[in-house]
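User: Modeling request: complex.
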Amino acid sequence: MPSPNSRNPWMFLLGASLLVCMVVDLYLIFEFAPEERSMGHVQRIFYFHVPSAWVSFLAFFVVFVASIRYLWKRERKYDMAANSAAEIGVLFSSLVLVTGPIWARPVWNTWWEWTPRLTLFMVLWFIFIAYLMLRNFVEDEERSARFCAVFGIVGFVDVPIVYMSIRLWRDIHPSPVIAGGEGSGLHPDMKIAFYFSLFTFTLLFVYLFVHRLRLEKSSVALSDLKKEMA
Amino acid sequence: MICDKISEEEVISQMKKSVILAIFALVFAVPLQAQVARLVHFQGTVMDSTGNAFAGSTDLTFSIYGRPRSGQPFWSETHDNVQVTDGTYSVLLGSKNPLKLSFYEYFLEVSSDHVATGERRVMIVGSGYNFRLWFLFSAYTVVWLALFLYIFSISRRQKRIISELEILAEVKGSARP
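Assistant: Request completed. Predicted assembly structure:
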């Protein structure tokens, strides 16, 4: 039986650090960061839209690495890690797809445009929705894990394409603010808020991933016990 | 041993709920505070006692009301020696006394002991500003609601699995000779 392990001091430390970082992040986003000249306050969506996208990419990268490891080692723990990360990736990519249009409506005067960046990101979201559905459709656990591993590796190919899309093709989406070349960049105070937000969201990912992995382990333990008793 | 674990789980769960509620209150309080308009640029005109455009400097008191007539002002500040050119002046409201406005409409009254400022209250509508704030607040709400719901969902699923494991472990134990 998997232990809930809730009193793990590392988890407590992680939770406490996350709480502190979230409070500081809120201060930086809503108080510290200056108001953007042309967009006004709505630009502050950027501080949780971009970190959400970053976390979804990170989560899909974990799926990619864990899937390769699973196909190589055939150890269940890698499949569990991939499944946990995929779910978190879908959550954060959904947030990107919701916060993006909320920002776009007052700035672009439209909720959505079928541009390369937006379309490819939606494709990525569909790929990993399909990944989660595939898991439930295939009954045999070993086959399900194998199919999902292959699907996760192939699905990840879309991530670098999404990332590079605004560099490769003409797009209404704002140019990259980090390493975006001439004329791009952020005000130093905005940079502080942005990098801290990235850090906080990464910490949030770690926290959610550990909890989701624990759930996955409990779920596998239950499934094993049921099989044993059948 | 299982019972010990469950009661321990319940206590931790209660603690978690309290912490989550505290975070929930906090994360929604911060942007509500931040959406407050700090400074409002205001331009107005004043006349002298003969009805001509005033020129020079004068003290002006600005008061904000929730209604077009009567009532008590909920905010007020006085600007000393405001420079007036051809009867026109401009001030930054909120620079003397912190200004807190939400999404509603307000009525501004200007008064002075020395010059005529007009008797009518002027409606302040920061439509573009407030309109955009709604988008920011919506995006912010969506993000945190989704995260909290996900954490709750993980917690509920974990509880269900643990209780199912406990039942199966009991059944397995009682089935043993």
